[in-house]
Fold this sequence. Notes:
By secondary structure, this protein is an alpha+beta fold. It is 57% helix and 15% strand. The relative contact order is 0.19. Helix 1 (3-21) packs across helix 12 (334-371) and helix 12 packs antiparallel against helix 13.
Amino acid sequence: xxxxxxxxxxxxxxxxxxxxxxxxxxxxxxxxxxxxxxxxxxxxxxxxxxxxxxxxxxxxxxxxxxxxxxxxxxxxxxxxxxxxxxxxxxxxxxxxxxxxxxxxxxxxxxxxxxxxxxxxxxxxxxxxxxxxxxxxxxxxxxxxxxxxxxxxxxxxxxxxxxxxxxxxxxxxxxxxxxxxxxxxxxxxxxxxxxxxxxxxxxxxxxxxxxxxxxxxxxxxxxxxxxxxxxxxxxxxxxxxxxxxxxxxxxxxxxxxxxxxxxxxxxxxxxxxxxxxxxxxxxxxxxxxxxxxxxxxxxxxxxxxxxxxxxxxxxxxxxxxxxxxxxxxxxxxxxxxxxxxxxxxxxxxxxxxxxxxxxxxxxxxxxxxxxxxxxxxxxxxxxxxxxxxxxxxxxxxxxxxxxxxxxxxxxxxxxxx
Length: 416
């Protein structure tokens, strides 16, 4: 083995021996590094978890989608608005398609006011929604059993329904709903499919409600128009989903839709636009600020830990002055002395980083349990925090190591 390799190994052994000799002082020094590394890992893990959760929630809305929703008003306000605007309608959909070639697909939705929803086995409080066939694709919904609504179902006014996972369990407990009957108000419908369960961790994102599809019943839009009654002042549609081409700018497209519908609705503010891509960007900006602030706080802990390492190493230099003089007397170079003390400070930082990893895992888990925030560990967070910790140990250990290397050998040997 080379001399430098043997010296490095001896330096590590010497560092561990020094730590064992001053256990309390070492423990107090390690606290700053442990808390710093743990905080960095926990905060980056929370940030990564929030990022993944945001992407999952946005996927449920469709990142390339625009959602136009009809606004709710009291009866008196609605009367005034209806003098200028009939609300969202299928003619709006046609106008959007004709004027915006960047729109690849459209789905239409209409909420059904329900006073009765039951099967021969149970009842349910599920929301009933009349939709076009493209709704399931644009809403990123998957089928678990049977099939979804098709264009032919709308063309033939078919009396069929697709159930959300929760609605299926409520209406047909312990049974396969496909092929069975349910009744919506006065209309009997045959169940043709059940959606896969999509249990989102949150029921809203940036103020937009999510996850309602679990407890919904879907029927063809044309069947609803043909076989159910609606109030006079109701808008023809309650929501329109638009899927944009990949090259389309969501913000610019939203501006075009808003301008078009405002003109068609007599400039009445009776609809609102939801832009999932903008919501994701807003959430990412908020998360970025949160991560920076929390990482800065964690960095302060590492700074305190670094100061602690400098303090303990300066004390070590004073305690081992005679030892340093002896090493210089038997041929140790300044670089050897400096390397030894740097190795000791790096060892302190390394032990603190190692313990900090476990502390960070426990802290992230505790935050999830008590605050309900998701977390996801990443190799980057661990490597970053450990690297910063080791770098801090070396940087703050350099001055004491330099002090030790610059000691005069003769004076060091005569030191008390």
